[in-house]
Amino acid sequence: MKQLHKQSSVNHRRDEEIPSNQTPPYSPKSLKQPRSLPRSINYLFKEQRLLFILVGILIGSTFFILQPTLSRLGPTEVRSSIPRSFSTDTNTTTTTATISHTQDASGSYSADSNKPFHGKVGRVPVGIGRRRMRIVVTGGAGFVGSHLVDKLIGRGDEVIVIDNFFTGRKENVVHLFGNPRFELIRHDVVEPILLEVDQIYHLACPASPVHYKYNPVKTIKTNVMGTLNMLGLAKRVGARFLLTSTSEVYGDPLQHPQKETYWGNVNPIGERSCYDEGKRTAETLTMDYHRGAGVEVRIARIFNTYGPRMCLDDGRVVSNFVAQAIRKQPMTVYGDGKQTRSFQYVSDLVDGLVALMEGEHVGPFNLGNPGEFTMLELAEVVKETIDPSATIEYKPNTADDPHMRKPDISKAKELLNWEPKISLREGLPLMVSDFRNRILNEDEGKGA
Ligand SMILES: NC(=O)c1ccc[n+]([C@@H]2O[C@H](COP(=O)([O-])OP(=O)(O)OC[C@H]3O[C@@H](n4cnc5c(N)ncnc54)[C@H](O)[C@@H]3O)[C@@H](O)[C@H]2O)c1
């Protein structure tokens, strides 16, 4: 023990003997010693290090705050080939079953925007910087579809029309040929198709009784299989889907005017049921894809609409009367002419469809003009507009012809901020000039 003690004291003395101006030998212990807090702070303050750190943080956070805004304002020409909904919000692809719904007193569904699914699919930010969308319009070569396409192209979107030309005509969209934002595909919606799009307006279906009764089984197939295919597409690519249903879902209504909550009075085995029940089934499918698969959907119930580009001689009352009066033929009134209808000008309908697609509410929404006319009153307006000497011829009424039709549009007024602006007396002359041109052109008149 003594020896040990001795040795340590010798060592100690040796340490003391090292001159103070010489560097001490290497000792790892001295490196491990923690730097004291005041020294670290001192280090930060030296040579403006703190200032540089703060400036760095400021630049970084400014970039991350501004980046989303800049990308929204960026050139609209550049777009991903991946649907936007997939590239920006992966939740929409994975949480499809978590959507929740609220159904209000008038039977309209609205998706709950607080829930995780309620995605950004096809959502259009209000105001500047709206990104160009790619939109499919099925039945886009038809009467309503072609006006809708004009509106979408006019506001800068890309539009793909799918049409089998059963009642549609290339002439309705020929003015868009050559426009790089317009595509036309001859395709029957009964067959599936895969396209990358943000929105789907599903209009494909013959709309006039003459056409939908021509091949009733095909009409049902178009409504059921066509709607299934388009809903499947919407689900696959995360697009928003709008169905153009009809006031015919109310059948021969026992409630007047018709609200969206009314379930209708439809003959399921009648001549018109291929159309009426077809559209009712299309509505059912639309809601089932919404509830079950989380597809964003919208449902419009369209009431009688008229305007340029309607098929001549399609059996619809306005086009019938106008074409007959121009040709100096008697206007055919079925039944006693006291049944009522409401007539909406096509641009009002198109505005309503777009408001519905861009809005937050699923629907269904009645889109129609609540002004109500008997067939005889309509014939009077046509006479005033075209030919005061025009005559009327009466024929027996067709099966299941509804006695009255008038939309209650309070829901659309309130939730879509939409209502028709053009009265029958204002809209009819616009249609008449188009019909005159086409009837004068003999080929068109025959081949429409
Ligand atoms: N115009 C109205 O008054 C009215 C009223 C209620 C509902 N609607 C609905 O609005 C939509 C458009 O009606 P519209 O008046 O423009 O009719 P329309 O007959 O002029 O247009 C229908 C279009 O769909 C196309 N089409 C039909 N079957 C198809 C198929 N299997 N595959 C692909 N394309 C097909 C036709 O060729 C035509 O271009 C229809 O769904 C109709 O039921 C219209």
Topology:
Blueprint: H1 2-17, H2 28-32, H3 37-45, H4 49-73, H5 84-88, H6 91-94, E1 101-103, E2 109-111, E3 134-138, H7 143-154, E4 158-163, E5 182-186, E6 199-202, H8 209-212, H9 216-237, E7 240-246, H10 273-293, E8 297-302, E9 305-306, H11 317-326, E10 331-334, E11 340-342, E12 344-345, H12 346-358, E13 361-363, E14 365-367, E15 372-374, H13 375-385, E16 392-395, H14 410-416, H15 424-440, H16 442-447
Parallel strand pairs: 3-4, 3-6, 4-5, 6-7, 7-8, 8-14, 9-12, 10-16
Antiparallel strand pairs: 1-2, 2-13, 11-15
Helix pairs in contact: 7-12, 9-10, 11-13
The chain binds nicotinamide-adenine-dinucleotide.
Overview of this structure, please?
This protein has 448 residues and is of the alpha/beta class. The protein has a domain at 84-122 and 130-305 and 345-370 and 406-422: Rossmann fold. It is 42% helix and 14% strand. The strands form five sheets. Strands 5-4-3-6-7-8-14 form a seven-stranded parallel β-sheet, with helices on both faces. Strands 1-2-13 form a three-stranded antiparallel β-sheet, with no helix packed on it. α7 (143-154) links the parallel β3 (134-138) and β4. α7 packs across α12 (346-358), α9 (216-237) runs parallel beside α10 (273-293) and α11 (317-326) packs parallel to α13. The longest helix is centred in the first third of the chain and has 25 residues, at 49-73. The protein starts with a helix and ends with a helix. The model is unreliable at 1-32, 70-108 and 110-122 (pLDDT under 50). Bound molecules: nicotinamide-adenine-dinucleotide. Nicotinamide-adenine-dinucleotide is lined by residues 138-139, 141-145, 162-168, 188-190, 203-207, 211, 222, 226, 244, 246, 302, 304-305, 311.
